[in-house]
Amino acid sequence: MSEKDKQNQDVEKDSVEKQEELSEADKKAAEEQVQKVVDEALEEAVEAAEDDNLADLSDEERKIVELEKALEDAEAKAAENMDLALRTKAEAENIRRRSENEVSNARKYAIEKFAEELLAVVDSLEQGLQAKAEHEESKAMKEGMELTLKMTLSTLKKFGVEQLNPVEEVFDPQLHEAMTMVPSPDHEKNTIIDVFQKGYSLNGRIIRPARVVVAQ
Q1: 168-200 pLDDT, tens digit each
Q2: Is 170 in contact with 161 (CB distance < 8 Å)?
Q3: Chain centre to alpha carbon of residue 85
């Protein structure tokens, strides 16, 4: 083998080795670059074809094509604006409803704190009425307390405050607070057999649960 042939063989060998040394990343990058060139060429070809088609049209036909494209763009923009308007309207409606609910709740429960404070007065009157009246003076005082209690409960009721006295009802942890549980053969299990302290609600919302004794 001549020296020149040997050199050519070495060059070919080096070329093969270099090709094998190409990493997968390099190959992928090369493929992406080729694909990008192909895509750009296709896009330019499509645009050129469209320009050629327009060039072949008469002025009137070209205007029609341009108007059709303008119409498509306008319809797309109108659809986008309509979607935005509908979403804006829906959001405004949600804000209005939330505001109405907040105002309604503010009106319904505005006296909640006042009512809770007044319940202590009601409790005091009820405890006082449990005492026996042995003298005429104490009887007259008791009658006055009964009238005061009745008027107070009536006033509370006018503003949505209801008294809850759940004797013989089924115990409900959402409405009642169990102070103790006792065996009772005369009652079914979880039945309220006595009330330590009556409960109260304001327009359906419990502001104080009734404290009760429950059958075991």
Answers
A1: 999 999 999 999 999 988 888 999 999 999 999
A2: no
A3: 23
